[in-house]
Design goal:
There is one protein chain. The longest helix is centred in the last third of the chain and has 19 residues, at 282-300. Strands 1, 2, 3, 4, 5 and 6 form a six-stranded parallel beta sheet that branches. Strands 7-8-9 form a three-stranded parallel beta sheet. Strand 7, helix 6 and strand 8 (212-215) form a beta-alpha-beta unit. By secondary structure, it is α/β, with parallel strands linked by helices. It is built from ten helices and nine strands.
Length: 307
């Protein structure tokens, strides 16, 4: 399966009636159907702008996304259960996620409700600190509410995302979670130092717990020209460190401005070809393209029989 672990395309629904065809965006359902089998659809609501109405704003976008998926159910379906990952797919899957847990209310009070609607991944915070954890622009750690949220996500089968966390909150998340964790969109700090990148020890610890690191297309995280060459180098560094079974892609499409050669989902075959030309095996490329993430999801997501 071909998987992208992070995009912000869902936010186009605040301006457009559907994600079916978005010529100005970096992807849409039509292009996803050609180049991906599973896309993580993140809902990002800036807590600085919506401190008082985070749950309402999150639910608004979630309901728009669910209605849009239902309207195009012959093409895309929400990923809810691990059983959906078995066998060939007749449609493409979308995993609904939240980038920052501010929309979950106090002590995760709305988590179960959003889970019932289809939420299957939670990132604890964005760059700043919130009631759950500290982001890369803060020194705060996991709070008591954050620890309770991690526990409940583990119980439900909701994937936890360590992207945007500072080092302190990252290590506490790994300590608290009984399930493998993903860092959905980041780069290797060993190659380019950035507060949003993860260092080698973090990558190794993530892999040791069965987790996955998603290498992103964000030029500021890749460093230098932020181009295809540098993306390949970050992927290769992570693979050399922990093996391809713990490395994936998290483009951040529609949440960043990649260079032209990486500027949309249709560019993914160019990346796969570049990795092959540089000597990466077909098996390793298959893992990076999606198999690594599918293995994690099969472990963490709930079974349909648990309903």
């Amino acid at each position: 399966m071909r998987v992208d672990c992070h995009c912000d395309t869902a936010l186009w629904l605040l301006q457009y009636p559907s994600l079916l065809e978005l010529p100005a965006a970096q992807q849409d359902y039509q292009r996803i159907s050609k180049y991906l089998d599973l896309a993580f659809m993140d809902i990002f609501i800036n807590e600085n702008d919506h401190a008082e109405d985070m749950p309402q704003m999150f639910q608004q976008v979630l309901q728009l996304l669910l209605a849009d998926i239902q309207a195009h159910s012959s093409l895309v379906k929400p990923l809810l259960w691990r059983e959906q990952l078995a066998g060939p797919q007749t449609h493409k899957l979308l995993l609904i996620a939240t980038e920052g847990a501010g929309g979950l209310g106090q002590a995760g009070e709305f988590l179960d409700h959003y889970y019932a609607l289809g939420l299957r991944l939670v990132g604890l915070t964005w760059n700043g600190a919130n009631r759950y954890a500290g982001g890369c622009a803060s020194d705060a750690g996991l709070t008591a509410e954050g620890k309770l949220l991690v526990k409940r996500c583990n119980q439900l089968g909701v994937v936890l995302d360590g992207a945007h966390l500072n080092r302190r909150s990252f290590w506490q998340l790994l300590e608290q979670s009984t399930q493998p964790v993903i860092v959905s969109h980041t780069c290797c700090d060993a190659l380019y130092h950035h507060r949003r990148n993860v260092d080698d020890e973090q990558i190794k610890a993530l892999a040791a717990q069965g987790g996955v690191v998603g290498i992103t297309f964000v030029p500021d995280f890749l460093g230098g020209a932020g181009d295809l060459l540098q993306l390949c180098e970050h992927i290769e560094h992570a693979v050399a460190l922990v093996g391809s079974e713990h490395v994936a892609l998290g483009s951040d499409f529609d949440g960043c401005t990649p260079v032209a050669e990486l500027s949309g989902v249709e560019k993914l075959p160019v990346l796969y070809a570049a990795l092959a030309e540089r000597g990466m095996t077909a098996g390793d490329i298959a893992n990076i393209a999606g198999a690594s993430v599918v293995n994690l999801l099969r472990k963490v997501l709930p079974s349909a029989t648990s309903l």
